[in-house]
TrEMBL record:
Record keyword Transport present: no
Source organism (scientific name): Brasilonema sennae CENA114
Protein name: Response regulator
Keyword Phosphoprotein: yes
Gene3D superfamilies: 3.40.50.2300
Domain of life: Bacteria
C-alpha cells in the first residue's frame, strides 16, 4: 500500500517513519512525502505509475499556497476513487463540513493518534 503524506512541516516525515516503522519493515506500506499540495498534485499528474499504485493521501489542511482542502477537491474531481484523509491541528466545524463536501474519506485532528490512524488505513 503506497501512502502519500502532504505536509509543509519537514519533521512530519521523521514522525511518520518512526510511527510506521514496523509496517515499513514488513513492506505493508510505503510512504511518499511532499512538502506542498502543489508538489503532490504535480507528482500525481505527471507520474502515471504513481497514481496506479497510490492507495491513500494524507493531507494537512494548513499549508502555504494551495491548502489541503483545495488539493482534496482537485483530487476527488480527477481521481474519485483515490482515498484522501484530511489532517488538521484545528478542530474547525467549517473545515470539517468543507472536507466532507469535497469527499474526504476521513477527517483527523492533531495530535494524531497513530493507533487509530493505522486502524483506519488498514480497514479502508
Amino acid at each position: 500500500m503506497k501512502i502519500m503524506v502532504v505536509d509543509d512541516e519537514q519533521d512530519v516525515q521523521f514522525l511518520f517513519e518512526q510511527k510506521f516503522r514496523r509496517e515499513l519493515k514488513k513492506n505493508l506500506i510505503s510512504l511518499d512525502f511532499t512538502l506542498s499540495a502543489e508538489e503532490a498534485l504535480k507528482k500525481i499528474q505527471s507520474q502515471t505509475k504513481l497514481i496506479e499504485c497510490l492507495s491513500l493521501i494524507l493531507a494537512d489542511i494548513n499549508m502555504p499556497g494551495m491548502n489541503g482542502l483545495q488539493l482534496l477537491k482537485i483530487i476527488k474531481q480527477n481521481f474519485p476513487n483515490l482515498k484522501v484523509f484530511i489532517i488538521t491541528a484545528y478542530d474547525d466545524e467549517d473545515n470539517y463540513l468543507i472536507a466532507k463536501k469535497y469527499g474526504a474519506d476521513e477527517y483527523i485532528t492533531k495530535p494524531i493518534q497513530f493507533d487509530k490512524l493505522k486502524e483506519k488505513i488498514f480497514s479502508a
